[in-house]
Amino acid sequence: MSEEIHNHLPYQNQSKTDKINEKEISQPPTQNQFEISKATEKSFSQQQNPSKPSSSAEKTLHQQLNQPKTDKVISSIIDFIFAKDHRKWLLLIFLLSLVLRVLIGIRVPFNADEMVHGTHAIGFIDSGKLQIMDQDPLWFWLTDFSMKILGFNVLGIRFMSVLFGALSVLAIYLLGKEIFNGKTGMVAAFIFATSAYQLVETRAEMDIAMVFFVLCAMYFLVVFFKTSQKKMFILGWVSLGIAMMIKQIAVVFILPLMLFSLYYSKKYEKEFRFKQIAQAAAILLILSIPVLTFNYLLYKDKGIVDLQFARFTKISFGTYQAIGATAQPFQVKSLFVPTGGLSPGLIEGLRMFNRETPIILLLSVIGLFFLFASKNKFTGLLLFSFLTIFIFLSGTSLLSTHFVWGSSYIALLSALAIVKISEKFKKEQHAKACMYLIIIIIAIFAIIEISSAPAYGFFGKNELGKMIDYKEQAINPNALVVADSRIYRGRIVFMFWDKHYLEANFFPQLLQEMEKMPGDPVPTDTYFIQCIPTDCGWGTVKDQPEFNASMENIVAFFKSKAGPVATINDIEGNPYFHVYKQTFPLKPGVLEVADSTHDWFYYPVAYKPASKIFDNYQTHNALSRFLDRFAHLILYAELVLVLLLAGLAGYLAFKKS
Q1: From CA 280, how far away is CA 21, in angstroms rounded?
Q2: Minimal CA–CA distance to 174: which of 388, 452, 373, 412?
Q3: What share of the chain is helix, strand, coil (3-state, %, to 5)?
Q4: Tell me, what's the pLDDT at 75?
Q5: Helix, strand, or coil here: 428?
Q6: Which of 27, 286, 474, 486 is in Cβ range 3.0-4.6 Å of 531 for a Cys bridge?
Q7: Residue 483: beta bridge partners?
Q8: Under a CB-based contact definition with an 8 Å cutoff, are residues 139 and 564 in contact?
Q9: Do residues 164 and 212 make contact, with C-beta atoms less than 8 angstroms apart?
C-alpha cells in the first residue's frame, strides 16, 4: 500500500525531479524564497491553530463552520430564495396548489357520488375487505386512513384529492420537462395548479388520485424510452397498476401505452419488443391480484361477482339491477347518436372541458399545432392516449369528474404554446415579459372562473362541514338524531354515521314500536335536523308532494315544542338546516332500533355489522385461505408503493440538476 501511495505522489514519478539539485542547496536563500518560507510557516501554524483565521475569506468560512445549526438553516433558506434555482418556483407552485385545493375542497358543496364513495370509505380498513362492489380498494383504504388522522369531516373525506392533486403538479412538471423542456414543464405545472376544472373537482372521488399515478406512469416510461433504464420501465408499469387499483378507468390507458411502446421500439430500435409487453402485462396482473381474488372467492362462495365484472360478463348482473342504468358498457352508437336527452357522446365529452377557462382552451389548441410542427418523438403518446380514454368515456360514462385527466393534456399543450410564442421575441427580456403576462392573465381568468359560480370560491365551509362541526360540539353520544328524510341519505350518513340517527320517515313508527319494548323510559336528548330548502340533495322532492307534506308534519311537531336551537347556513349564507332539540322519555331499545336502520347503498354504514355485508365471502379450504391472505399481502404492498411513488415524484422534481 505504501508503495502504491508513493507511486502516485507528485515529483516522485519523474526522473528529473527524483534527485535534489545539490547546487540549489549549497546557495543561500534569496529574499523571495525567504518570504515564501515565512508564508508556508504561517500557513502551517494556522492549520495547527484553526481558531485564528488569517484573512477575511478564511474568517467567513470559519464563521460558517462554527455557526449554530439554526443559523445554518436560515442561511440555507435565504440562499435558496435568492439563488437562480428553478426549484424555488416549483416549490411555490406546489404550495399554491396545495393551499388552493384545501380552501376549495372545504368550500365546494358535495355532489351525490361523493356521498356514495366517500361514505363507503368510512370503516373500510377495519372491515378487512379487498374491495367494494363497484370500486377497487386503494382509494377507500387511504381515504379511511386520512379521516382517522384528520377527522371524519370535509377535509378528511376529500384529502386524497387535495394531496394527489397537488402532487400531480410535480408529475406534470416532470412529464413536461422530459417530453419538451424544463421551461415548458414549469409553465404546465402552474397551469395545472390553477386549473379551474381541477380545483372545483377536488372531491371525495378517485379520479384525481388516479391521474397522479397515470402521469407518473407516462413520465417513467418516457424516461425509459429515452434511456432504456430497466428500473424506469418497472416504475412506469407499477405506477399504472397502482392507478388501476385506485380506479378501474386507468385500465383504458394500457392499450395506448403498450401500442406506443411497440411503435417506439420498432421506429427507433428497429424491432418490436414484445417481451417488454409481456413483462408489463405480468406487472399489471400481479398488482390486480386483490381484485381478481375477491371476484374468484366471491363467485366460488356465493355465485356473484362485483359490478364491473357483472357489467361486462353479465354474471349475476341482477344483483345490481337497481343501478343497472348507470353501468352500461361502451357503445359506439352513443358517440354519434343523441341519447337520454343529451347530445352525441363526442360532443358531450368535449363540453366537459368547458370547465377550463377560455384562454387555456385557446392556448391548448395553439399548442396542438406547435406539437405537430415540432415533430416530437412523443407526439403519438400524447395524442393516442388522449383519444383512447376520451372516446371510451364519451361512449360510456359522461360524468365531469371522469374527464379531469384531460386537464393534464390541456396544461401541457397550453404551456407549449406559451413557451413557443415567447420564443418569437428576439430579446430575452421581451420573451420573459410575454410569458409572465400570459401567466398572469391565466391566473386572473382562473380566479374569475372559480368565483363566478355562486357555490364556488376560495373561502368558507359548506353546510355539511358546518353541521359536522356543530354535531361534534353539541350532540352528546347518547342522543337520538332524527334527520329530515328530504336530506339525501348519503349526506345523513356522512354527517351522523357515528351517532344514533334515524331518518324522519321512520320516526312515527319508532314511537309506536317503543310501547312494545322492555325497560323503563329514560330522558333522552333528541335532535331533529330540518331541511329548510325542502330538498337537500335528492333533486326529486318537488315531484313527491305527499312525501314533502309528511316531512312538514314532523317539522311542525318539533316546532310546536320549541324553536330551533341552531341554524346552519350554506356557503352562500342562506339558511340550510334548522336544528331542534327536545328531551323525550325513550326506552333504551329505541337507540338500538335506530342503529339497525343504518344501511346505505348496498352496505351497512361503516361495514357494521359484518353479517349484513352482502359480498363478504367465506373461505372453505386451505387454498382459498391462502389466496385470501396472499391478496391482502399484495394490497398492503401496494399501499407502501403509493407512499414510495409519491415520495419519489417529489424527490425527482426537486432533485438538483
Answers
A1: 71
A2: 412
A3: 70, 5, 25
A4: 64
A5: helix
A6: 486
A7: 503, 529
A8: no
A9: yes
How many CB atoms are located within 10 Å of the residue 407 CB?
27
Long-range CB contact pairs, 611-614, < 8 A, 24+: 613/127, 613/129, 614/133, 614/319
The amino acid sitting at 570 is: D
Helices (runs of H) and strands (runs of E) counted in the chain: 30, 7
* Number of other CB atoms surrounding residue 155 within 10 Å: 16
Instruction: Using alpha carbons, list the distances in angstroms from residue 131 to 125, 174, 184, 211, 635.
Output: 10, 32, 39, 20, 10
Confidence of residue 33 (pLDDT cuts 50, 70, 90): very low
Instruction: Check residue 567 and give its pLDDT.
Output: 97
Kindly report each contact of residues 499-507 with a partner whose C-beta sits within 8 Å and lies 24 or more positions away, as own/partner: 499/471, 499/475, 500/591, 500/594, 500/595, 501/594, 501/598, 502/594, 502/597, 503/597, 504/528, 504/551, 504/554, 505/547, 505/550, 505/551, 506/597, 507/482, 507/554
| Residue at grid coordinates 320516526 | 507
Cα(340)–Cα(343) distance, rounded to whole angstroms?
9
Contact partners, residue 534, CB within 8 Å, separation at least 6? 486, 541, 542, 548, 551
Task: Output the average pLDDT for the chain.
Answer: 87
How far is Cα 253 from Cα 276, in angstroms, rounded to an integer? 16
pLDDT per residue as tens digits for the range 260-293: 999 999 998 888 999 999 999 999 999 999 999 9
